[in-house]
Specification:
Blueprint lengths: L28 E3 L3 H12 L7 E9 L4 H14 L5 E6 L2 E6 L8 E3 L6 H16 L11 E9 L2 E9 L5 H19 L13 H13 L4 H10 L32 H13 L4 H17 L5
Helix pairs in contact: 2-4, 7-8
Length: 298
């Protein structure tokens, strides 16, 4: 579900190899981690109880909810994507991902107190935040949780929480799109309408590692080693308090509206430089950090 392919690793799926680690059932497929997965696995080893890389989204259902159909649809999504049936461990110091052939997902239900709708929704959001803050165990799995909250007659809230090693924000759109189609099919008594996937995320990981082994990425690695040399020090941002000894991930959100003229100028500047609007705004943010810190490495 995670990264998009740089090119189609057409032969990766056909060249999969099976390994059996000590204590692992033979039915599990064992694969190397992609570079992105390895980065997240390493960070989880540093802070195993941190929920910093949890991804949580809410899906509201209006009208009568068919819980059996919803649970079936969720399990079809899990069966469809190997990344949602994967757990991570290490063998001889090397991280590996194991894809389980089957990983049934149970839809957890939580009761809300009898109260006014506004109070019930506030309580539901508090439960959703608590669910999103619960850490995952990458070694045991599963890396997807589903919590169902009934807000009142004809209104329910589904809280999906995943670890970033199994999914990213872009992939969540795919999950919700597939879940919607599968749920509609189940309610109508139709079979699974989705075609099987020709490739899975472990195929991408195998293909990516093979590119590294063949030296195809040597030029790119040399470029970034030179570009990032000496850029590991934290920025000395002016602050009204001492820097915390450890990261808290307690960030905030500040919203500002751009005027019409500026809103039109930003995408125009991006087009003039064959860039995206995001790249222009990121460059502006980096320029601001440079003005505050004097550091050219951001």
């Amino acid at each position: 579900m995670k990264d998009s392919y740089e090119t189609t690793p057409s032969s990766a799926g056909a060249e999969r190899t099976q390994h059996v680690a000590a204590g692992q059932p033979p039915a599990d497929d064992c694969f190397p981690l992609s570079f992105g997965q390895q980065r997240l696995w390493f960070l989880q080893q540093l802070e195993p109880d941190s929920p910093a890389y949890n991804i949580s989204r809410l899906l509201t259902f209006k009208g009568e909810l068919d819980e059996a159909a919803l649970e079936w649809a969720l399990n079809r999504v899990v069966a469809r994507h190997e990344s949602l049936r994967t757990r991570f461990t290490s063998l001889d110091g090397h991280p590996l991902q194991f894809v389980a052939p089957d990983a049934p997902l149970r839809l957890t239900r939580a009761d809300l107190p009898a109260a006014a709708p506004r109070v019930r929704r506030r309580h539901a959001l508090a439960l959703a935040r608590a669910e999103a803050a619960r850490p995952f165990d990458l070694q045991r799995g599963p890396l997807l949780r589903a919590l169902l909250l009934h807000l009142g007659p004809g209104r329910s809230l589904l809280v999906l929480t995943l670890h970033h090693i199994a999914c990213d924000g872009w992939s969540l759109g795919l999950i919700f799109a597939e879940l919607t189609r599968l749920y509609a099919a189940a309610r109508a008594g139709r079979p699974d309408p989705l075609a099987p996937l020709p490739l899975q995320y472990p195929d991408y990981a195998v293909w990516q590692r093979r590119r590294l082994d063949t030296g195809a990425l040597d030029a790119e690695l040399s470029y970034w080693r030179e570009r990032l040399a000496g850029a590991c020090l934290p920025l000395a941002l002016p602050a009204d308090r001492p820097r915390a000894a450890g990261r808290t991930h307690a960030g905030g959100v500040v919203r500002r509206r751009l005027g019409l003229a500026l809103s039109e100028q930003v995408p125009a500047l991006a087009r003039a430089h064959a860039a995206t609007t995001f790249a222009v705004l990121l460059a502006a943010w980096q320029a601001l950090l440079w003005r505050y810190t004097g550091s050219e490495s951001v």
